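Re: that chain you flagged

S.,

Sorry for the slow reply, it's been a week of failed gels. I finally had a moment to sit down with the sequence you sent. For the record, here it is as I used it:
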Amino acid sequence: MRNGKLIIGAVGALVVATGVGAMISSSNSNATKAEGETPKLVSAVKEEPKDCRVVATNETGFDPATTPVPVREDAGKKQVLKGTAVGAAVGAVAGEVIGGKPGIGAAAGAGAGAIGGHTIKADKQKSADEIYDAQIAAYTQQKAAYDAALQNCLN
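Prediction finished late last night. Pasting the structure tokens below so you have them in one place:
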């Protein structure tokens, strides 16, 4: 008889526990939804936070971390020195042939060669500066588009 009472007590406890569990479950579901609403499914996978730098790079095709800033080039390297050397050599030969004074011819030729080398350097530098100006304008425009996309993402 004693075993029978234990079984009846266990079954009673099970019924009470099941009833309490059902009441708790129904009260929780009522708290999260209004009458007539369907329950919302919660996604098990959380969305990763977006990296706005990656978003801005993908939108613009510009990455300031890997895109080098244009550098102004010194296009006329050694032009004056070359002009001076060539002018001195030609002047020395001309000075010897014309008047028998190669030193004076070399000095005059070096001066003329330096002026010619400087002119060549100025022309090359002007072309290099125009290229640089175009490159820096394009870089600035791309950077502005990137910055705008980055701000848009952050907001």
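What I noticed first: The chain has two domains: 1-42, 52-154.

Talk soon,
D.
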